[in-house]
Structure formats: structure tokens, C-alpha cells
Write a structure and sequence with these properties.
Elements: H1 35-41, E1 46-48, H2 54-67, E2 71-73
Length: 82
Amino acid sequence: MKGTEGSELVDELKLKEGDYVLEKRAYSAFHETGLDMLLRTLGVDTVILTGLHTNICVRHTAADAFFKGYRIIVPKDLLTPI
């Protein structure tokens, strides 16, 4: 949850000038966030997905990305066991 210790970014992922921030309120990062429009504007056709819960948020984001026509990569060594 936003504002909790668990939502803090590790130093390697701290925001830098020019980074985009889209707040996610549902399992899928595409649901009502503007992510699809941003990626299309930037000419992105491939998404690399990682997350804490592969079977929930990554799965829902991957499904939405697939139906929107993106190429999807989920790095195997970053998968959370289910």
C-alpha cells in the first residue's frame, strides 16, 4: 500500500529525472493507469514483467498486455514460486 514501508523503492530503483510514475490500483498495471497510451506514445512494443506475485499482478498485467498486442517477457529467474 502506498505510504507503507513495503512500498518504498530500493536504492537501485529510485526515481530519476525523466522517469514516469503511474499509480496502479488494480492487479493489472494497464487497468485505468494510462500505461497503454504512454507505451504507444513512446513506441514500445515489448514489456518485461516482474513483480512480487507472479500468479496475481504479473499474470493480470501479462494478459492485458497480450490482448493489447504487446510482446511479453517474464524473466524466469525473477519468477515467484506459486
